[in-house]
Each structure stands twice: as C-alpha cells, then as structure tokens.
TrEMBL record, chains A, B:
It comes from the Bacteria. This is LacI family DNA-binding transcriptional regulator. One of its GO terms (molecular function) is DNA-binding transcription factor activity. The lineage of its organism: Bacteria, Pseudomonadati, Pseudomonadota, Gammaproteobacteria, Alteromonadales. Keywords: DNA-binding, Repressor, Transcription, Transcription regulation. The keyword Repressor applies. Residues 4-58 form the HTH lacI-type domain. The keyword DNA-binding applies. It comes from Neptunicella marina.
DNA sequence: CAATTTGTTGATAACGTTTTCATTGAGATT
DNA sequence: AATCTCAATGAAAACGTTATCAACAAATTG
C-alpha cells in the first residue's frame, strides 16, 4: 500500500516508465497487449500519477485561479460555480481567489501564474494585478480573462454584459409605467459596472425628457444593508421617488425591507427593480422585477476564452458581450395617480 | 524578462543555487552579506520560485481542497470564505471542489491528495470518498477534516454543530410561544444534518407532551423552491400548522413567499423559524427568527484541524462542537387563540 | 531479395527545486 | 603551534514525470 510511482508500475508490468506514461496520456500509440499489461499493473498497485512530476516536466499545472471579490455574493458564487463546472469538464482545477477586495491578496493570487501554480487567471476586477510598462504588449501577459468589471486595457480577453444598455432597459421599463421620479441605489462606485449602470440610468431619463435629480441617487455597495439604508434616505426626501432602480438584487432586497418598515406597499406605492436575477429574486414578496444576468454563460465563456489562451489557439473574438434581459415580475406596476 | 530560475539568480549573485534557496526559506542561516546580494539579484531578475520544483522535492503542495456540495448556497459560501481566509494566512491555497452532489466529482477531488496535488481535504459530506477496508486505520487516511455532515467513522477529525440540540431549541422556542401544531420542512433527508434536526424536532415535541404528527413534516431539499412547495402542502392540510420550523433559511424564505401568497401574515397568523442565519435572514419581512450558525468559526476550526494533521502535530481534540444559538427576530410570536 | 517504411519500445535527459553531505576558513581552545 | 568547533557555503543527488531520440522488429515496397 505504499505510494507507487511510475517506476514500480514499469517494473511490475515489465516495460519502461516511458511506456507507462504513454499508456496513460497517449493510449493509442501503444500496442493493445502492452496497454493491457500496464493497465493491470496500475490497477494492482493503485498508481496515481504525481502531479508535480508531470507539471514540472510539462510546465502546465492544470489549474486556473479565479480572482473574485467575494464568494459570498450570490452573483459571484453563481459564476464561479459555472467556471468550476466548465473547468472540470476539460480536466482543470479551480483555485479560489476570494480577495475581499484586498489588493494584496489580488496580487498574491495573480502571482501564482508566475510561479507556475496556475496556468491562467479569470479576473473579476477592473484593476490589472501586474506591473506593466507602457511598452508591455498583450502577449506578454499571462493567459487572462477579465469579466464583469472591465479593465481599461486593449486586447485583453473580456466577457461582459452591457451594463449601460441593461440599466437603460430597466429604467425604461419604469418610465413606460409612468414613473418620473425614479430613485437609484448604486453599487460600489469604484466599479465600472456601477458607473455604467448609472450612465444607463441617466441616458434613459434624458431620452424620456426627465430631468436628472442628483438627490434621487444614493450610493450603496451591492450589499443588502446598503440597500436598506439607502432606501431610508430616499424615503426621507421631501418629494420621495415613486420607483427604485436597485443596482443589485441584494440592494433590492434591502430596499424591500426598508419599504415594508416604512409601511409602503410594493408595487402599489412604489415600484422596485433589481439587477442580477439571483435565485432569491423570484421568491421575494412581491417577486422581484430584475435584470437577468446569464451567470452560466458568463462562466462558460470565461473558461473557453481562457483555455484558448492557455493552449495558444487563435482567438477570433477577444471580447464577448452577453445578452442581459429584463425579467418582469410583480414588484413593478403602473404609477398610481 | 525571460522567466528566471534559481540558477540564474545564483549566477547573478555569485553563489550556489543552494544558497539562494536557503536565503528564501531559511534566511537566518545565511550571512547578512550574501543574503543581501541574493535578495538584490532576485529583485533584479524578478525571480519567483517555481512551485512544482519545490513541491516535487518537498512533497508538499501548499494547497488543500474543500469538497462542498454547492458553492451557490449562502451557508456553504460563508464557510468556504472563512476557510480561504484562514488558509491564506498560513500560506495555503484553496482548491474549489464544488461537486453538485455528484459522487464522481467528489471522488475526483478526493483523489487529488493521492496525486499530491493537495495536502489535505475538508469534506462537507457524510460519505467518505475513499475505498477502505474494515482494517483501515485512521492514520492511513490522508489529512482530512469532516464538517457539518458527520461521517460515521471513529477518529476522523470533525467540526460540527449539535443539530439535535439546535433543532430542539428552535422548536422549544415555538412551544414556549404556545404553539402545538408545528410544521417541519426538512432539508435533504439523506443528510445527517436534516435527520438530526428532525430528531431534535421530535424530542422537543415529546418533551412537551405534544404528539408527533407525521402529516406535519414535509421533505424539502434546503432550496428556496422546496420551502415554497412544502409550505403549500402544509397549508392544504385540513388542520394547518400554526408555526413552521424550516431546516434552512432558504426554506424559510420560500415558506414566507408561500405564506404571503396564501394571504397569511407572519407572525400573526403563523410563526416561522429558520436555520443558518444567513445574511438574508435579518432583512426578510418580517426579520427571520433563526438558528445562528458560526460560519466563521467553522471554517477556522476546519483549517486549524487540517493544518495540524498536515504538519503531523498531535491533536488533543479531534472532534469540535461549536455552539449554535437562537436568534430571535420578528417572525415568531405568541400563538393567537 | 534488398531497401525502405512503419509501428513499438527503451534509454536518457531534462524540468526547478531542496536537502544532505562534505568542504572551507576563521576563531576558540588546549 | 596544534587541534577543535562552528558558521557559511557548494556539489550533487534526489523528487516523478514526459519528450526526444535512437533502436529494433515487422511489414511493405521496388
């Protein structure tokens, strides 16, 4: 029951280590007879190839790291699950790079590609975790795909969602229901996603000829709590909004809580729309109207794009934009006069 | 800018590779002068030690895998975040073993310890993912800690919560409010946690002299949806329950949704208690009374116990039971006559 | 029948570390 | 002065694979 190496297997089956290796990685180039012998020996001594030996030789780790601000967030968790799923299908392992927004941790995880511990990075952040000079070209970077929070660097593989358009669609929905005083509760304003959604909000307003009122936008941080406190602030306004555009479902969840506490009925007294369409959305009371994000597709595309880079395959489209669509439920209604 | 190895550093600083290695892992045994030289050279050529070279030599990967049924679940996500945090502190990486309850994936991830890819396993499952014979002794197993869903094997390190006692406390709370017809919505009944909670439920009932009514327990699966459908079933009973004990917050969330649809007010018409105290609990309407699980502590203890095994330190207490306490909020109230 | 191709296999050399062991020289002890 | 100790270093041998290259037999071709 001692840990068996490739040499033991070789000896046991009467072939060379090379042949054992071939039997495992290129079965078709070894004769049926020897293959059988080797397989039997492997089974007999319970041999499992040592990853480090192989990796050291091939310079491939078979792992990737996903650098993500907070695994606890349902949106992030959904994507990472999809990534894990796709990675597993192609024999890759996923290292969890939960950073809690700590730049030190981000860099730590990013450095793993230098030490060879991972073959590539999926990055959910707008900050490139490397030091680069202006002369640095894209192909000097390690395999990397950037998702959801675009970083400002041409040529990097990205899988995104059009946050401006999505926000616009969300707000247009409210406008079409007769709302004019539409509050907005943002996520962290240091993220591109939140900025883009704010831009979309403004564009929708402008297009409908509604004047932008800075008092109606309150900054949150994508967390439930912030949705609640922001809503309380908005309700304290002398002229309160008749609808709320929340930049995440979590925020909407907090908002609903605050609205209930204030004795307001959704959607009769006030409409609310969320963003993400997490699994909670459909079960809120009332069921939340929200922008549906294609988590599964995001993960899938991230992994595909990363794999192409790792395997140095040509990539036709380095920038993938996934559709995001409005999921209308019961939390929005025609404005009551 | 080519990737530098230890040999380049050695040449650049005029020492041997051995000294470079020592400078990095045992700085104190190399003279200050050479240390400085080496450090300067390292900095100059941007050297990062190759993980595989080191791991091959030391037979240590510096990684662990956490095998968990579903990262999307807020409870699981909370624990894994804590594990990642603790692991990072001691220089370990966390491989994400999200299995979606697929035994094949469980075994795949478990096998990583055999291939050397990870040094240990944190397992959230009641099934041991190895083939063992009756003669197998504990110290033949790889470093392993089992959490939340106890596996039936003496001597394995475990960090647990007393689900029987916790459930009992939850139900006693309802009983103390005058409830007698208390519905239960279970999680997956193939898990020990759910069975234990059901046991606790029955014990509390028995202790209060309330007869157990099988009609009042409905099987869910820890997901929101199941909470909703289970509640609908319970409400269809000729004599419906006056309180609901939900085996997870997600279930409670689904239950609240169903109750609202049925026009019932919580807690006036029916009380609800959950289990987990996820971040959503406090913001439900009404705020959910629930059993608080110490996610952070669970993760912390898991990692500590695993590390002790990896480093072959003596372990005084192999079985850790963490306290779980009732968090009373607004979803439970005195039974109205 | 000789020449060439094809299909299998083995020997061997890396891959990049760490660690053991031996060596050196300087300072301390007799 | 001769020996001993000790700290600092280097040489070299692993760790367990895989890939290259050469070798050999068998099969095909001219």
């Amino acid at each position: 029951m001692l840990k068996a190496g490739i040499k033991q297997v070789a000896k046991l089956s009467g072939v060379s280590p090379a042949t054992v290796s071939r039997t495992l990685s290129n079965p078709e180039i070894v004769s049926a007879a020897t293959r059988e012998k080797v397989l039997k020996a492997i089974d007999e001594c319970g041999y499992t190839p040592n990853r480090f030996g192989a990796s050291l030789r091939t310079q491939k780790s078979g792992s990737i790291v996903v650098i993500i601000p907070d695994i606890t967030n349902a949106f992030n968790a959904g994507i990472i699950r999809s990534i894990e799923d796709e990675a597993a299908k192609v024999g890759y392992s996923v290292l969890l790079g939960d950073t809690q927004r700590d730049p030190v941790k981000v860099r730590h995880y990013a450095s793993m590609v230098r030490s060879g511990q991972v073959d590539g990075i999926i990055l959910f952040s707008q900050h490139l975790p490397f030091d680069i000079t202006p002369e640095t070209t894209i192909d000097q970077l390690p395999p990397l795909v950037n998702s959801c929070e675009p970083l400002d660097l041409d040529g990097v593989c990205q899988v995104m969602v059009n946050n401006v358009a999505a926000a616009k669609e969300a707000v247009n929905h409210l406008i079409s229901l007769g709302h004019k005083r539409i509050g907005a509760i943002t996520g962290n304003m240091d993220t591109p996603s939140s900025n883009d959604r704010l831009t979309g909000y403004k564009q929708a307003l402008a297009q409908a000829g509604i004047e932008f009122d800075a008092n109606l936008v309150t900054n949150g941080n994508y967390l439930i709590e912030s949705g609640k406190t922001a809503t309380e602030q908005l309700l304290a306004l002398s002229e309160r909004p008749t609808a709320l555009f929340c930049f995440s479902d979590n925020i909407a969840f907090g908002a609903m809580s605050a609205l209930h506490d204030a004795g307001l009925k959704v959607p009769d007294d006030i409409s609310v729309v969320g963003f993400d369409d997490t699994e909670y959305a459909a079960f809120m009371t009332p069921a939340l109207t929200t922008m549906h994000q294609p988590l599964k597709e995001i993960g899938k595309n991230c992994m595909a794009l990363l794999l192409a880079q790792i395997e140095k395959r040509p990539i036709s489209q380095r920038c993938i934009e996934l559709p995001i669509k409005l999921q209308v439920r019961r939390s929005t209604a025609q404005l009551q006069q």
